């Protein structure tokens, strides 16, 4: 037996191989090995290939949309018109007022009273003598009647005194009455006659007051304004209605004294009435009258143009533009106003030659309506109208020709449109 705490020798004996060599221990049994799988790596590789291919396709797609050509090198689309050959005549413009031939403000001039009736409203046509409005004038009427009765009484008294004086004069021849009585009676008759004349004068004044209570049209025309309605209190000098006669209108303007020679009587003037539309808004008429002296304060000369208007279509009190030509016609090139940048007496334009826009500075002769008249050297040139704001000198363009209709005006050599005549 072995003592406790000591290692015991193994009971197992080591087998020995023949010949005295030690034999190896028997090998432990092993598990059966599985075959290796390639599916997952192949899927990963395929996904990577697809992602790389997709990235390459997106890169080429995006790169194909990028314009690698500079915008300045591409022709810019513009619209051009051909400059028209014409003639231009310098002109001056004035602002005028269209006045009626006659105008009257109707109201009381002698009495103060309440307005009883106002018959017409603005726009009504009235004949001369038509009653326009009436006032409540009972007091004036009563006074007129009282004066008339007093005058009648004095007339009766005058007749009686005259008869008595005649009888006394007959008795004077027989010596029955003194001369003094006859003279006194004649003086009394003269006094009564003077009183009658005085009362008749008063009667005339009261009759005027009574007539002043009835407003009548002083001429044939139209009611322009109505200033009072029934119940309002009217005083002398306060208008109730205004009436105008538009059968002929007066176009009045004040021009500078330096233009006195350009507005002589008979000078044709183009008149554009701002309150009207259509061809009737522009007419041509000669100057009818010109005052011989300038206003001492404003230093302007007053001129008037009479325009017959039997149909009464021109509104009065409105504004008109007058254009007066002066000087001799000169050759010019006409362009739309949008084709030029005008500064003072110079204009900047772009002229297209062989698909290239050249910037040019030309002299400005004047403007009429929507046209500008420049130096005749541009006649026949193609001038840019649309797209000029993006152009620079010698820029390449792709031009399209547009039709240019010149402004109809007698200031130019272009055949004008027919103007309306009233």
List the SSEs and their pairings.
Elements: H1 39-65, E1 76-82, E2 84-88, E3 91-106, E4 113-118, E5 125-126, E6 131-135, H2 138-173, H3 179-212, E7 214-216, E8 221-226, E9 233-234, E10 241-256, E11 268-273, E12 282-286, E13 289-290, E14 300-308, E15 319-325, E16 330-336, E17 341-343, E18 346-353, E19 356-368, E20 371-374, E21 382-386, E22 395-401
Parallel strand pairs: 1-22
Antiparallel strand pairs: 1-21, 2-16, 3-10, 3-15, 4-6, 4-9, 5-8, 6-7, 8-10, 10-14, 11-12, 11-15, 13-14, 16-20, 17-18, 18-19, 18-21, 19-20, 19-22
Helix pairs in contact: 2-3
Gross geometry = elongated
Order of secondary-structure elements = HEEEEEEHHEEEEEEEEEEEEEEEE
Structural class: alpha+beta
N-to-C CA distance: 160 Å
Number of β-strand runs:
22
The Rg value, from CA coordinates, equals 57 Å
CATH topology of one domain: conserved putative lor/sdh protein from methanococcus maripaludis s2 fold
Q: Strand portion, in percent?
A: 25-35%
Q: How confident overall, as mean pLDDT?
A: 79
What is the count of DSSP helices, taking H or I runs of 4+ residues?
3
Largest sheet: 9 strands, antiparallel
The helix content is: 10-25%
State the CATH class of one domain. Answer: Mainly Beta
Q: Low-confidence segments, ≥5 residues, pLDDT <50? A: 1-23, 408-422
Question: Can you walk through the features of this model?
Answer:
- The protein is of the alpha+beta class and 422 residues long.
- Among the domains are: 77-87 and 328-401, conserved putative lor/sdh protein from methanococcus maripaludis s2 fold; 138-212.
- It is 23% helix and 34% strand.
- The strands form 3 sheets. Strands 3, 5, 8, 10, 11, 12, 13, 14 and 15 form a 9-stranded antiparallel beta sheet that branches.
- Helix 2 packs antiparallel against helix 3 (179-212).
- The radius of gyration is 57 Å and the shape is elongated.
- The chain starts with 38 loop residues before the first helix and ends in a 21-residue tail after the last strand.
């Amino acid at each position: 037996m072995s003592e406790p705490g000591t290692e015991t020798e193994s009971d197992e004996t080591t087998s020995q191989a023949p010949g005295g060599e030690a034999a190896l221990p028997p090998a432990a049994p092993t598990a059966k090995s599985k075959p290796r799988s390639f599916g997952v790596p192949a899927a990963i590789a395929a996904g990577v290939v697809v992602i790389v291919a997709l990235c390459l396709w997106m890169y080429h797609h995006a790169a194909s949309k990028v314009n690698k050509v500079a915008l300045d090198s591409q022709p810019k689309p513009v619209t051009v018109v051909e400059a028209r050959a014409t003639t231009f005549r310098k002109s001056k413009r004035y602002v005028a007022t269209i006045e009626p031939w006659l105008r009257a403000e109707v109201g009381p001039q002698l009495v103060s009273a309440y307005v009883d009736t106002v018959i017409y409203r603005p726009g009504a046509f009235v004949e001369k003598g038509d009653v326009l409005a009436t006032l409540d004038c009972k007091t004036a009427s009563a006074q007129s009647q009282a004066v008339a009765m007093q005058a009648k009484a004095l007339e009766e008294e005058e007749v009686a005194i005259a008869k008595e004086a005649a009888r006394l004069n007959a008795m004077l021849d027989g010596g029955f009455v003194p001369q003094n009585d006859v003279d006194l009676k004649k003086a009394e008759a003269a006094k009564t006659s003077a009183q009658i004349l005085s009362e008749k004068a008063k009667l005339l004044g009261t009759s005027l007051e009574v007539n002043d209570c009835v407003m009548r049209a002083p001429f044939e025309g139209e009611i322009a304004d109505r200033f009072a309605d029934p119940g309002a209190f009217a005083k002398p000098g306060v208008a109730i209605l205004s009436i105008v006669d538009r059968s002929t209108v007066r176009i009045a303007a004040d021009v500078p004294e330096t233009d006195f020679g350009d507005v002589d009587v008979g000078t044709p003037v183009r008149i554009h009435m701002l309150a009207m539309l259509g061809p009737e808004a522009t007419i041509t008429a000669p100057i009818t009258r010109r005052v011989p002296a300038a206003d001492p304060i404003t230093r302007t000369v007053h001129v008037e143009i009479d325009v017959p208007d039997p149909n009464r279509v021109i509104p009065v009190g409105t504004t008109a533009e007058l254009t007066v030509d002066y000087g001799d016609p000169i050759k010019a090139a006409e362009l739309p106003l949008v084709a030029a940048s005008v500064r003072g007496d110079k204009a900047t334009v772009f002229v297209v030659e062989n698909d290239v826009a050249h910037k040019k500075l030309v002299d400005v002769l004047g403007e009429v309506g929507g046209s500008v008249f420049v130096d005749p050297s541009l006649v026949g040139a193609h001038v840019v109208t649309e797209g000029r704001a993006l152009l620079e000198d010698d820029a390449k363009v792709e031009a399209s020709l547009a039709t240019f209709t010149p402004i109809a005006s007698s200031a130019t050599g272009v055949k004008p449109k027919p103007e309306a005549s009233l």
